[in-house]
């Protein structure tokens, strides 16, 4: 099956620029669908990296699109009450008629994210356990049957309505690049979501995930391997590199070189971008989510052309 290509809406960038209006974001989503993209994605943060709320914004995106999958890249479920979250996501899945994909993670251990957890009243050190239990509770509620739950969130005979459009609820892709994250993704969820800078490292991790799937007796064909990449496409390589370095430093408040060592980034020509994406597709990536540096209109068209090229060969 040809690799699928998704587009990450620039929610964080627009808020940082003082342009939080949602109409342009919805127009980008509609344009991505028109150009043949397979999915549209939204990031998540409360205070650490201010941006639009992903559940609310994706509801609007669902209303102005018809075919593209709608995803979170990535969502932090540990920050939410899972009973409330299960209700919100079930409603969003109904609005989109089963197009929702929940990309999830535990969040990086950096000071501003620790502060974000504290502001939400959530212990940072317990975030893995909260996430895992919360997602199990969501899935239980998504059956529509009475749920009795003894845990962090006691539930007595709780019945959720509506349940998601898609039976069982939206697929969940677990993000991460360390062994425990690979184990969580392969044993309990529907996909693995990585943001690994080095193709060789990603390939080795994907081999680990596949082995865990085999050991767990799970069907590899039903499991998604996704990668999140940042592209600065410009025929002038020097200009492209300057642009992506400025973007990374402004976005993360860290040296660009440090971020490039940790995240999948490419700066350069269209042909080079195609080769970069093809490398991950050839290594087994089934879904690539791209974050575009610079004006989205022209670059959406360029990536659309690359998508067609990858699909053809």
Question: Can you characterise this structure?
Answer:
- With 313 residues, this protein is α/β, with parallel strands linked by helices.
- It has one domain: Luciferase-like domain (TIM Barrel, Alpha-Beta Barrel), CATH 3.20.20.
- The protein contains twelve helices and eleven strands.
- A hairpin with a 5-residue loop joins strand 5 (147-149) and strand 6 (155-158).
- Helix 3 (54-63) runs parallel beside helix 4 (82-95), helix 7 (179-188) crosses helix 8 and helix 11 (270-283) crosses helix 12 (296-312).
- It is globular and about 60 Å long.
Chart the SSEs and their pairings.
Elements lengths: L3 E5 L2 H6 L6 H12 L4 E4 L11 H10 L5 E7 L6 H14 L4 E5 L6 H9 L7 H15 L5 E3 L5 E4 L13 E4 L3 H10 L2 E4 L4 H17 L8 E10 L3 H16 L3 H7 L1 E5 L1 H14 L3 E6 L3 H17 L1
Parallel strand pairs: 1-2, 1-11, 2-3, 3-4, 4-7, 7-8, 8-9, 9-10, 9-11
Antiparallel strand pairs: 5-6
């Amino acid at each position: 099956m040809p690799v699928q290509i998704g587009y990450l809406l620039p929610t964080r960038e627009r808020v940082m620029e003082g342009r939080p209006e949602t109409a342009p974001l919805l127009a980008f989503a509609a344009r991505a669908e028109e150009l043949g993209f397979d999915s549209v994605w939204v990031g998540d943060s409360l205070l650490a990296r201010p941006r639009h709320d992903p559940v609310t914004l994706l509801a609007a995106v669902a209303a102005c699109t018809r075919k593209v999958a709608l995803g979170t890249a990535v969502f932090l479920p540990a920050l939410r009450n899972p009973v409330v979250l299960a209700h919100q996501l079930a409603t969003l899945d109904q609005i989109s008629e089963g197009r929702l994909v929940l990309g999830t993670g535990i969040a990086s251990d950096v000071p501003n994210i620790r502060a974000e957890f504290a502001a939400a009243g959530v212990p940072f050190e317990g975030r893995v356990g909260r996430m895992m239990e919360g997602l199990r509770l969501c899935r239980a509620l998504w059956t529509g049957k009475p749920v009795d739950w003894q845990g962090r969130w006691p539930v007595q005979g709780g019945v959720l309505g509506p349940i998601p459009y898609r039976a069982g609820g939206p697929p969940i892709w677990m993000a991460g690049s360390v062994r425990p994250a690979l184990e969580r993704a392969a044993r309990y969820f529907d996909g693995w979501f990585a943001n690994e800078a080095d193709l060789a490292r990603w390939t080795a991790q994907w081999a680990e995930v596949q082995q865990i799937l085999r050991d767990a007796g799970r069907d590899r064909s039903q499991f998604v391997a996704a990668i999140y990449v940042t592209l600065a496409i410009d025929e002038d390589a020097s200009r492209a590199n300057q642009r992506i370095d400025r973007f990374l430093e402004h976005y993360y408040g860290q040296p660009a070189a440090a971020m490039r060592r940790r995240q999948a980034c490419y700066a350069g020509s269209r042909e080079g971008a195609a080769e970069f994406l093809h490398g991950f597709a050839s290594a087994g990536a089934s879904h690539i989510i791209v974050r575009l540096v610079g004006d989205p209109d022209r670059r959406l068209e360029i990536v659309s052309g690359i998508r067609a090229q990858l699909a053809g060969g």
